[in-house]
Write a structure and sequence with these properties.
5 strands, two-stranded parallel ribbon, mainly alpha
């Protein structure tokens, strides 16, 4: 199927719907900059992990500043308001775990992160091993329902 311009929203929604119905565990990992509407689909995982220096949002801070204030130079202010860091998203229950990124030698750091990710993925597999398909789908649904924060004014 050829996608026409303007069909992105439908494609994202379809991806989210299909992910939500999968009968197997879905583990999403944000490793860099997830900042587009397509990043929304990552939130449908049973578990969502995020590297500590990654960002995850539906829009870049530059785009947010341009839309909200008509001033892309307010990127830093926009980023703070958007709550797109691993720490912010963990507190909002959007992600389940922050994966530490050690400083130092790139190759050694990569190997440490890969080892941490392997351990966390194995933990999820072990945790969900005895769940049937309905329980896996319900687990994903409940995780999604518990995301975020609601405040009355």
């Amino acid at each position: 199927m050829v996608q026409k311009r303007g069909d992105n929203g439908e494609a994202i929604a379809s991806s989210m719907l299909e992910l939500s119905k999968l009968k197997v565990p879905v583990i999403a990992i944000v490793i860099g900059e997830g900042s587009s509407g397509g990043a929304l689909a990552l939130g449908v995982g049973n578990r969502v992990f995020m590297l500590e220096n990654a960002i995850y949002s539906i829009l870049s801070p530059e785009g947010y500043a341009s839309i909200l204030w008509k001033d892309a130079s307010r990127t830093k202010e926009a980023a703070e308001k958007m709550k797109l860091t691993a720490k912010d998203l963990y507190e909002l229950k959007v992600i389940d775990k922050i994966i530490k990124e050690p400083k130092g030698d790139e190759e050694a750091s990569f190997l440490k992160v890969a080892k941490s990710l392997r351990k966390e993925i194995q933990n999820v597999i072990d945790e969900m091993r005895d769940m049937n398909s309905e329980q896996i789908v319900e687990d994903r649904y409940q995780k999604f329902r518990n995301m975020g924060e609601y405040k009355t004014l």
